[in-house]
Design brief:
Elements lengths: L5 H8 L4 E12 L5 E7 L5 E6 L5 E7 L4 E4 L12 E7 L3 H8 L1 E16 L4 E2 L4 E12 L10 E8 L14 H7 L26
Parallel strand pairs: 2-4
Antiparallel strand pairs: 1-2, 1-7, 3-4, 5-6, 6-10, 7-8, 7-9, 9-10
Length: about 210
């Protein structure tokens, strides 16, 4: 459970703070393979906001608003190693979103979701936005809208816990062992040892 200060909790209970969501996506460019990142938030205008990233470091990032982030599914707050899933809806009318799906590779892109608390009077965040979700785009749905209709893409995201459920493709072989360390000969005879007959207490007569 996220810990907040007593003052912040009191203001939350009194309904004196406004909640806003932030989405940060980092993906590879299709042409160069270089990593690129962009952020969106569910309010108006472009905002420089502090967030707590995946390494628990406070960073200042730029987030685009004004309707680009059209929908954000509820983030399940589950303890343990259970994989979480959340959907993000973005407008294809935005040039920044179009670049994400046309020039970048959205599949397997890293995703962070944060929630920020704003003072409605000063319009300022009371503290860096807390991290609520870390994962990757598991299934991007990028439809082609009909003429005259607004396009909406849906990014179905899975938390990093899903990676723990994947089986490893590595084999117990000398080749795989030497990929980890070229000089490791521990498994050089792993493929043939099962065909050898062990001899106990006497010389092998064969």
């Amino acid at each position: 459970m996220r810990q907040v200060s007593a003052v912040t909790q009191a203001r939350l209970d009194a309904g004196e703070l406004v909640l806003r969501s932030f989405v940060w996506i980092a993906a590879r460019r299709r042409d160069t393979g270089a990593l690129a990142a962009r952020g969106w938030w569910n309010d108006v205008g472009t905002l420089e906001a502090q967030v707590i990233d995946a390494q628990d470091v406070v960073r200042t990032r730029t987030f685009i608003g004004s309707g680009d982030l059209m929908g954000l599914g509820s983030v399940p707050l589950i303890l343990g190693m259970t994989a979480q899933e959340v959907t993000i809806q973005l407008s294809l009318m935005s040039q920044a979103v179009a670049e994400l799906v046309r020039e970048w590779e959205p599949r397997r892109a890293a995703v962070e979701i944060h929630r920020g608390l704003f003072d409605p009077w000063t319009k300022l965040m009371v503290e860096p936005a807390a991290r609520r979700f870390i994962g990757f785009v598991d299934d991007p749905d990028i439809p082609t809208p009909a003429e005259g209709q607004e396009g909406t893409i849906t990014l179905r995201c899975a938390s990093l816990s899903q990676e723990l459920q994947r089986s490893s493709s590595a084999k117990r072989s000398s080749a795989d062992q030497r990929k980890r360390h070229p000089g490791d000969a521990f498994l050089d005879y792993a493929a043939t040892i099962k065909h050898r007959k062990p001899v106990w207490g006497d010389r092998d007569s064969a």
